[in-house]
Amino acid sequence: MEKIVSAKNERVKKWSKLKTKKGRLNSNQYILESWHLVSEAINANQKVEVVLTTNKQYELHQNEIDAFDGEVIEITDDVSKALGSTSTPQGIFGIVELPKEDHFDSLDMNGSWLLLDQIQDPGNIGTMVRTADAAGFDGVIFGEGTSSQFNPKVLRSMQGSQFHLKLLEGDLLDWIGKFKENDVPVYGTELNPQAVSYDQIEKQDAFALVMGNEGNGMQDKILDQTTKNLYIPIKGKAESLNVAIAAGIAMFHLKK
Question: Which of 53, 134, 213, 222 would be 118's cystine partner, CB 3.0–4.6 Å?
Answer without folding.
Answer: 213
